[in-house]
Design goal:
alpha/beta; 7 helices
Length: 170
């Protein structure tokens, strides 16, 4: 019998308690979690452990979530990112989408919504990122393409996750 792969999720927030609570909830859903408490630790974890997904706060000391995502992009590390935020900052959301963020969820976290986003992001990641690594097929999913997809989703009045789900299920 073959063993099912356990997806690795990097959980990033400067609030240690939130990292622990998020990690526990994700582990209860059978995900492996990796903790990080700022953007620099997240980059180190991503480089060392190659997670399948990152769930990150935007506003953190040292290197914030946007700077973290920009640094990962500059290193060619492509991992879907769901940002968790206490504030609806439209400017930061736009910047995050330009950098290729998968989606957002606001604090306090509704776990049914988070788990749905996690499943969609992992499906997206497996289809678009992992296949690229193993098949040497150059896929046209980069920050610019994701920005275009975000613009399309906004024009249609739906989230990026819903738009990608529609495209994946065609």
């Amino acid at each position: 019998m073959s063993e099912t792969k356990k997806f690795k999720i990097l959980v990033v927030d400067d609030e240690h308690e939130l990292v622990e609570i998020l990690s526990e909830n994700l582990q209860n859903q059978e995900y492996e979690t990796l903790p990080a408490y700022d953007g620099d630790q997240a980059i180190a974890q991503a480089e060392a452990h190659h997670p399948d997904l990152i769930i990150s706060d935007i506003n953190m000391p040292k290197r914030d979530g946007l700077q973290m995502l920009a640094k990962l992009n500059s290193q060619g590390i492509r991992i879907p990112v769901i940002f968790v935020t206490a504030f609806s900052d439209t400017q930061k959301m736009r910047e995050a989408w330009k950098l290729g963020a998968f989606d957002f969820i606001e604090k306090p976290i509704d776990y049914s919504i988070l788990f749905s986003l996690v499943n969609q992001a992992l499906e997206f990641g497996v289809r678009f990122y992992k296949e690229q690594k193993t098949s040497n097929i150059q896929l046209a999913v980069d920050s610019q393409t994701l920005a275009e997809l975000n613009a399309q989703a906004k024009a249609e009045g739906i989230s990026l996750a819903k738009l990608l789900n529609k495209k994946l299920n065609k």
